[in-house]
Specification:
Elements: E1 3-11, H1 15-26, E2 31-35, E3 51-52, H2 61-71, H3 78-98, E4 112-113, E5 123-124, H4 130-145, E6 148-151, E7 153-161, E8 164-172, E9 177-188, H5 209-217, E10 221-222, E11 227-234, H6 244-247, E12 251-253, H7 261-264, H8 274-286, E13 295-298, H9 304-310, H10 312-322, E14 331-340, E15 343-345, E16 357-359, E17 364-365, H11 377-398, H12 411-421, H13 431-445, E18 449-450, H14 452-469, H15 483-507, E19 516-517, H16 525-528, E20 530-537, E21 540-547
Parallel strand pairs: 1-2, 1-9, 2-6, 9-16, 15-17, 18-19
Antiparallel strand pairs: 3-5, 4-5, 7-8, 8-9, 10-15, 10-20, 11-14, 12-13, 13-14, 20-21
Length: 560
């Protein structure tokens, strides 16, 4: 065992993690990033369509803020939304000055395309590889400033001493050794929990590690029942077909060739908010107007030249994965799990209630997205709140007098890993099989439409998965790159988070944003305009509630 020390440790190397690290570096902190994959394999690379900021002459930060609050179905904290919308344009300019080559109009201005729920074109983009392009630029900045990376290190547990987060225990995959990385402040930037569901648009690495680490360490999770289903994913694989397809003018058609969104959102049509479009699609499918369990995304009228220019990756994916050339035929799509609005409860500076622990990006719930996120806001969130979290973490660490870590700080992690490795090989589920079974059950019981009986049945299944998880063995007994061990650890994270999602969804007796209950079909502002806050106990999640902060926009009935 070795002990490594830093003032700030960022866990996760996607856009939020790298932006946090850059800001901590600017504050003069001794810092490093710890990541289970190479930074350029972080899931931010999969973001396609755009990043929102009010840059256009016809746009204002107030309009961006209102669209975000409305899109959230009024569960967003409006003070947070105001900070976000005010600071987003400056962050775009900074990304450009770092070297981000945004797509531009002929007059040289940064191009912006329409996205769902936005009153004006607001999504800056780089064709349909926006996340990939920005991720590469941020990685260049890491190299430029010599920021150290613990690459292919797997975080096992947060280390908490005297009520303060003091670092992490982590496995160096190359040696299989468990080490302590001590820090004055830890920033979680580990992304989402998409693999709780199957299928999902999320990468295989999106196993909710940071959320589970924080939850187990005593930090609360917020609004975990709010799970977004993206309207356009490929049927079998769950691969994302960006909202930019509809932003460029794509249509959604049912089996009768009808642009059915006219029935559900007559003003914004295909560019209503994601929860509205996903419910509309699922309703069409459930009522028999689908095409083999899908609807059709029609881009043919855009013409091959525009598709090649604006949506080249989408065309390539559609041909390679679905066998459909979108210039010639519609793409079969259906709603698929995409994003978690919930996460580690943090304030505007990324600080959690556990001192020394910060979070930014999808792992965090800062109160920005509420019950439904607008497309293009997540990439902007990683940059704006990654920057703020990095600065705050550096300031916290600078003022901290660190006592030496207890000698037994690794003991809980060592004990758990030893227990996993010692499980008998005979019997027990394969981790991949149990993960897929649980993911399919989560989609069935906690999907687009929910009701009490359905969710209670799902909760009972989760209890069974937890019981079965206790017998899942690690079949590889080696140390070097033991992905079998890592997959079992990830599965433990997923089971914890599935239970929190279920508890929050069953308790919230209303329909709001992505949480749509057939037995409680209306939004209930009097009783449920509040955040769900989940704390871990030996008996399962303990739920508390906090009022949503309203500054200027009173709740209204949402229509598009």
């Amino acid at each position: 065992m070795a002990v490594f020390k830093h003032e700030v440790l960022v866990i996760g190397a996607g856009m939020a993690g790298m932006r946090a690290a850059l800001e901590a570096m600017r504050e003069g902190a001794n810092l490093a990033i710890l990541t289970k994959v190479h930074p350029l394999r972080s899931h931010s690379v999969a973001a396609q369509g755009g990043i929102n900021a009010a840059l256009g002459e016809a746009d204002t930060w107030e309009e961006h803020a209102f669209d975000t609050v409305k899109g959230s179905d009024y569960l967003a904290d409006q003070d947070i939304v105001e900070i976000f919308a005010r600071e987003a344009p400056g962050d775009i300019v900074e990304l450009e000055r770092m070297g981000t080559v945004f797509t531009r109009w002929d007059d040289g201005r940064i191009a912006q395309r329409p996205f769902g729920g936005a009153g004006t074109p607001r999504a800056c983009y780089i064709a349909d590889i926006t996340g990939q392009a920005i991720l590469h630029v941020l990685f260049e900045q890491l190299l430029k400033y010599g920021i150290g990376v613990y690459e292919e290190w797997f975080a096992v547990d947060l280390i908490v001493q005297d009520g303060v987060c003091r670092g992490v225990s982590a496995i160096d995959m190359r040696s299989g050794e468990l080490h302590v990385v001590e820090a004055g402040a830890v920033v979680l930037a580990t992304g989402g929990l998409g693999r709780v569901y199957h299928p999902t648009t999320n990468s295989f690495i999106c196993t909710g590690d940071g959320m589970a680490l924080a939850y187990r360490a005593g930090a609360p999770l917020q609004d975990m029942e709010m799970v977004q289903f993206h309207p356009t994913t490929l049927k079998e694989s769950g691969i994302l077909m960006t909202e930019g397809c509809r932003g460029e003018g794509g249509y959604l058609l049912n089996s009768e060739g009808e642009r059915f969104m006219s029935k559900y959102a007559p003003n914004m049509m295909e560019l209503a908010s994601r929860d509205v479009v996903s419910r509309a699609e699922q309703t069409e499918i459930d009522e028999g107007r689908g095409v083999d369990g899908c609807v059709l995304l029609d881009l043919r009228h855009l013409g091959e030249a525009k598709i090649r220019e604006r949506l080249p990756q989408i065309r390539e994916l559609a041909i390679d994965v679905a066998g459909v050339d979108p210039a010639k035929d519609p793409i079969p799509v259906r709603p698929g799990m995409h994003y978690s609005m919930g996460g580690v409860k943090v304030d505007a500076n990324g600080a959690s209630p556990l001192p020394g622990l910060f979070a930014a990006g999808e792992v965090a719930s800062v109160g920005l997205h509420g019950a439904n996120r607008l497309g293009g806001n997540s990439l902007m969130e990683t940059v704006t709140f990654g920057r703020r979290a990095g600065k705050a973490a550096a300031e916290f660490a600078r003022g901290l007098k660190q006592a030496p870590l207890n000698e037994g700080s690794l003991a809980p992690s060592l004990t758990r890993i030893r227990e996993l490795m010692d499980r008998p090989l005979n019997g027990g589920d394969l981790p991949a099989r149990l993960r897929q079974e649980m993911g399919e059950a989560m989609k069935e019981h906690f999907g687009i439409f929910r009701d009490e009986a359905q969710m209670r049945e799902g909760l009972a299944k989760i209890a069974d998965y937890r019981s079965r998880y206790a017998g899942v063995p690690v079949r590889n007994k080696g140390k070097v790159y033991n992905y079998d061990l890592l997959s079992v650890l990830e599965l433990g994270f997923l089971v914890d988070l599935a239970e929190v999602i279920a508890a929050g969804a069953i308790a919230r007796k209303e329909s709001r944003g992505a949480h749509s209950r057939r037995d409680y079909p209306e939004r209930d502002d009097q009783n449920w305009m509040k955040h769900t806050v989940a704390w871990r106990t030996p008996q399962g999640p303990r739920l508390e509630y906090e009022d949503v902060r309203v500054t200027r926009w009173a709740p209204q009935k949402r229509s598009y």
